[in-house]
Amino acid sequence: MKRECPRCKKNNSLGVDHHPKVGHVVRCGHYYRTSDRKWVQRYRCRICRKDFSQATFSPAFRQKKRLLNKPIEQGLISLVSQRQMSRNLRCHRTTVARKLRHLAGLARSNNERRLTQIGQGSIGAVQFDELETFEHTKLKPLSVLAVLDKSQREVLGFTISRIPARGRLAKVSVVKYGPRKDERKVDRNYLFEKIKILISDGAVIESDENPHYPAAVKSSFPSSTHRTYKGRRGYYAGHGELKVGGFDPLFVVNHTFAMFRASVSRLIRKTWCTTKKIEALSDHLQVYIQYHNKVVIQRCRQPCGVVGGTPT
Ligand SMILES: [Zn+2]
Q: Which pTM value belongs to this model?
């Protein structure tokens, strides 16, 4: 496959359009990449004399351990902690942390691109809710707000907000870490404004009976119908997200949150494996949501006995 020269493409003054169509990029040797035991084709631009290769255009360009990308991505969506991954794969835990950042960058751009592929005003039913977790200690809780397309079960977006500790931890938290701001309102409005272009006029928006929701929904989705449902006690085997007592009108969002907790190691309840930095939680969720939207919900649409689009 013929490549475009990255330097000429970047430098508009050279005017890549004026290059001769054929022959300005020629093959120029190859090298053996030991990290994944592959021969890589090199190229040379005959206009600017720049050398480059197939690898120049890869998202894993200049990575020394590119073979770890796939197993680490699998671990991140399979409830494996970062330290356990480093032990399994015989690499340093910092390598795993760096790979998480790399994979999250790719997942973030894929998730953003996916939003642009959904037709404007094409979503007629939406559910949203919040999931609670914490950074470092339960004295510093976080709230993850996620919005889902009810019919497709696709996660349209999420935000992570710092919230003050509640109940008997509230006082201890203030003494130890000082007052903690509630960021939920700003983040909620930001997320609603971001996805509002996808929601149709007269859409049905469903949530629990949180008193802050009606005003936020009315301001971002003025022509929609907001339906609220009373919160229910969690079913013990559903990570606290699936509810007891028969039909659950918020099943789509509750079931997705149960899947978050069953797949993302740092979200499982009563665990050693906690979030240390809010950015890393965001990165981890980006990776899981990419997998959820691309693989899990697509698999649910396949008839029984068919996994990942191929008959088993
Ligand atoms: Zn060039």
A: 0.89
